[in-house]
Design a protein that fits this description.
Layout lengths: L1 H4 L7 E4 L2 E4 L2 E2 H4 L5 H9 L6 H13 L8 H10 L5 H9 L9 H14 L4 H12 L17 H14 L6 H17 L7 H11 L4 H26 L22
Antiparallel strand pairs: 1-2, 2-3
Helix pairs in contact: 4-9, 4-11, 4-12, 5-6, 5-12, 6-12, 7-10, 7-11, 7-12, 9-11, 10-11
């Protein structure tokens, strides 16, 4: 039996008929006493959050729930809903759009912040090394839609500053983020403000979440918007809606007919 019972090993949950515990805490003691954000933390990390830490994590999750049908993940979920599939399928369609390019900048920004935090070289050299490895786009800065600035980032950074003043976090990743922002502005001779990915990455780094968890947490947050849009589209109806109205056609650049 040990070969069978040890096939899967987990420190997250233990249960038997009539008993469920999460990291040693009975589920009935968690229900009604622990917030959903605190439960997320408890599931992915063994250390329970302090009240200020949970509030900061919640702020990051609230900020990233949605960015409208222009976001590929939201558009895909809405198109999927018009194909007659269920909400869970539509949600999975949208979530599966989240990867390195769409949805991955938060993880990449945390990795960049960590590199800057541990580097023995000046920040400018850290950025040059990053650009040499990953290309010219620095994750977490600038936005193709929100110009001159992403309205979510300053609010999140303000909350980090307040949390640091209260001892909830030490604020060093907020300083690193701002230093990178200043260095980019110096190089380009114009502001390139921190965006939502850079600001939530500051929070995830301040709270001690590993970079891959930054992406997972973003997916949790964005799944709320994906659910909302899939449900709204289901209520609106429509069948087999593509990315553009039927009267518009794509550009054909193949060989001529005949």
């Amino acid at each position: 039996m040990s070969d069978v019972s040890d096939w899967w090993r987990t420190a997250i949950i233990d249960m038997e008929p009539g008993r469920i515990t999460f990291r040693g805490r009975p589920v009935q003691e968690l229900i009604g006493n622990v917030s959903f954000v605190e439960m997320i933390w408890l599931m992915v990390r063994p250390d329970p959050p302090a009240a200020g830490q949970a509030a900061l994590l919640e702020a990051a999750l609230v900020a990233a729930v949605d960015h409208g049908p222009q976001a590929p993940s939201i558009a895909a979920a809405r198109m999927a809903a018009t194909c007659g599939i269920g909400l869970n399928n539509a949600m999975a369609t949208g979530l599966n759009m989240l990867g390195d390019v769409h949805g991955g900048a938060g993880q990449q920004a945390v990795e960049l912040y960590h590199r800057a935090d541990t580097a023995e070289t000046p920040l400018g050299e850290v950025l040059e090394d990053w650009i040499a490895e990953h290309g010219p786009i620095l994750p977490g800065f600038g936005h193709r839609f929100h110009m001159p600035a992403d309205p979510r980032a300053p609010r999140l950074l303000d909350l980090v500053d307040r949390a640091a003043a209260q001892g909830v976090c030490d604020g060093r990743f907020a300083r690193i983020g701002r230093d990178i922002e200043a260095e980019i502005a110096r190089r380009k001779a114009r502001p390139v403000p921190m965006n939502i990915d850079g600001a939530t990455a500051v929070i995830f780094a301040e709270l001690g979440f590993a970079p891959p968890l930054a992406r997972g947490l973003f997916c949790l947050s964005r799944s709320v918007g994906i659910l909302a849009h899939a449900w709204e589209q289901t209520q609106q109806g429509g069948r087999n809606k593509g990315p553009t109205p039927p009267g518009y056609r794509w550009t054909y650049d193949g060989p001529p007919e005949g």
